[in-house]
Design brief:
By secondary structure, the chain is an alpha/beta fold. It has 16 helices and eleven strands. The chain has a five-stranded parallel β-sheet with strand order 2-5-6-1-7. Helix 9 (about 240-250) packs parallel to helix 11 (about 275-290), helix 13 (about 300-315) packs across helix 15 (about 335-345) and helix 13 (about 300-315) crosses helix 16 (about 365-375).
Length: about 375
């Protein structure tokens, strides 16, 4: 049987664990003309949740056209327009009335059109004469979405990327036109919590209080345990409760890491899975990823690396400048640590979370954390 533990892309609701409450919230928002800001750590499953929502919209036969774009790889407004245009072209390709209207819009831009050699999907290269023309194209694109004859749900992943665009007024440009669209709803997804909150919760920002917030947390231990046991049982295999508990503890119930470890365990093809077999799979993952982990050391200074190892050994650190922590790991002065931490957070090697009214630091990659703690 196909391995049911998917950690790269969404397959179906049968292989999707829980998130029922979040799904209901998103469904209620998008059918009530309410935009949503969805925030979670990277690899916590927000993209899978969006595609689960799209499948639910289809299953319930809701009159809505769902569109998903990931702007993580974009670097400016032109890229932003390009990825949305290509997504719309792919989605409306088999809907003749929509396709005709959208393709007329694309032709008016006089783009250079190429086709991906693997997927056959169109790719656009649009040349702009000046900045106002680019802004007008953005507005025209949204106007086309607003007039397709069917409500549109546009989910934009890694939305905080717009903060890195050279166009300084990007948020104002988007907000000014988005608020006029009666037929388009948005889900703004992001993994950098501090940036997303600054975009949507800062009273001086254009998007202030324009959406409902939804934070994606870990799946409950009970729900994840039931899901894992069922997937093994469906293939006439048995996994002990002790083994499941170890999986959820070792991966901290973080979606990507839990799915990946379960994927490795499932590949053992043993009829009975115990904790020792899970530990064997966990070690196999660390060995597989060693080359990647070693590259991090080349990216960091000696002081950054020592601080990273110290945080990994602690697991979570609330006060990385405390005398006790610095002395325990022979780290440099508190002032130096204060200058090292932002660089590690910016590189997304360290995660800073706000817990119980204080900032808590941890290694972003849970498997990397285990590898550091074991080897240094």
């Amino acid at each position: 049987m196909r391995n049911p533990f998917i950690y790269r892309s969404y397959i179906s609701k049968q292989l999707f664990c829980d998130r029922e409450t979040e799904l209901k919230t998103l469904l209620a928002n998008c059918t009530s003309n309410v935009d949503t800001t969805l925030i979670s750590e990277r690899r916590m499953g927000k993209t899978g949740l969006i595609h689960r929502l799209f499948e639910e919209i289809e299953d319930l036969k809701i009159n809505m056209l769902p569109l998903y774009v990931d702007i993580f790889a974009t670097s400016n407004l032109a890229d932003f327009i390009k990825v949305i245009s290509e997504t719309v072209a792919r989605t409306v390709n088999d809907k003749s009335s929509m396709s005709d209207k959208f393709m007329q819009f694309i032709k008016s831009l006089r783009p250079m059109v190429t086709y991906d050699p693997l997927s056959g999907m169109p790719q656009f290269q649009i040349n702009y004469q000046n900045e106002p023309e680019k802004i007008q194209t953005l507005y025209s694109l949204f106007d086309i979405l607003n007039s397709l004859g069917q409500p549109v749900l546009l989910a934009i992943d890694e939305f905080q990327q717009i903060r890195y665009y050279p166009e300084q007024n990007m948020e104002a440009l988007l907000r000014t036109h988005i608020q006029t669209l009666a037929n388009v709803n948005f889900i703004f997804c992001g993994s950098k919590r501090h940036l997303m909150l600054d975009i949507f919760a800062n009273e001086r920002a254009p998007f202030y209080r324009s959406t409902e917030f939804l934070a994606l947390d870990k799946i409950s231990e009970h729900s994840y345990s039931e899901f894992i046991i069922k997937q093994f049982a469906d293939s006439n295999r048995y996994i002990t409760t002790e083994a499941v508990a170890y999986i959820l503890d070792w991966t901290q119930r973080h979606t990507y890491y839990t799915q990946r470890l379960c994927h490795y365990v499932y590949q053992l093809e043993d009829e009975r899975i115990d904790i020792q077999k899970v530990k064997k799979s966990a070690q196999q993952i660390l060995q597989t990823d060693t080359t990647v982990f070693n590259q991090y050391r080349q990216m960091l200074s000696d002081r950054q690396w020592r601080l990273l190892v110290a945080i990994a050994k602690e697991g979570k650190v609330n006060n990385p400048t405390s005398r006790k922590f610095l002395q325990k790991y022979a780290l440099p002065a508190a002032s130096t640590i204060q200058s090292l931490l932002p660089a590690l957070v910016d590189k997304e090697i360290i995660t800073d979370s706000f817990v119980d009214e204080c900032t808590q630091y941890s290694v972003s990659d849970i498997f990397f954390n285990h590898w550091l703690a074991l080897n240094f």
